[in-house]
Amino acid sequence: MGVSISPPFTLLCLGFISTVWTLNPDDPNVCSHWESYAVTVQESYAHPFDQIYYTRCTDILNWFKCTKHR
Question: Contact at 8 Å (CB) between 30 and 23?
Answer without folding.
Answer: yes
